[in-house]
Structures are given as C-alpha cells and as structure tokens.
Design goal:
This protein is mainly β and about 80 residues long. It has a single domain, classed as 2-Layer Sandwich (NE0471 N-terminal domain-like), CATH 3.30.2020. It is built from two helices and seven strands, in the order E-E-E-H-E-E-E-H-E. The strands form two sheets. It has a four-stranded antiparallel β-sheet with strand order 1-2-3-7. A hairpin with a 4-residue loop joins strand 2 (about 15-20) and strand 3. The chain is globular and about 30 Å long.
C-alpha cells in the first residue's frame, strides 16, 4: 500500500504540495483534471485553494476528490 496524504497545500499553477505519511513531500499537477466534469469548479483559483485532507486523501468542498494512490504515484518528489 502506498503512503497516505498527511497535509496538502494548493500552489500557483494548478499544483498541490503534498506531504505523505512516510514523510515524503511531493508535487501533484492537477491541470489534466481542471475544468472537466466534477472538477469544473477548480478553474476558480479561490475555490482551488480550498482543498483539504479528507480520509487520508484530498477533497474540495463540493466533493471532488482524488485517490491517494493516484496522488502518490502521479506526483513528483521535491
């Protein structure tokens, strides 16, 4: 099992700075999701920044979330 999300911070340029339960810090590019389906509201930067940790992953207030495995495997170490 991959590590789970411990903290999340929205960054400029549609990316998220994530800290995982194993102590790793990684950057995840949300750009491929923005503006599509349930992720349509993320085009608003103020809304994008309202991301939070939820059940060992991340979620925005209107419900969109991403799998913690996707966040880990598709992010880059920093």
């Amino acid at each position: 099992m991959n590590p789970r999300v411990k903290t999340v911070e929205a960054e400029n340029g549609n990316s998220l700075l994530l800290e995982f339960t194993n102590g790793e810090k990684r950057r995840f590019d949300v750009s491929p999701y923005i503006g599509k389906g349930v992720f349509a509201p993320l085009t608003d930067e103020t809304f994008f920044r309202r991301v939070s940790v939820f059940l060992d992953s991340i979620q925005w207030p209107n419900g969109p979330d991403l799998c913690p495995d996707t966040l880990y495997l598709d992010s880059v170490s920093i």
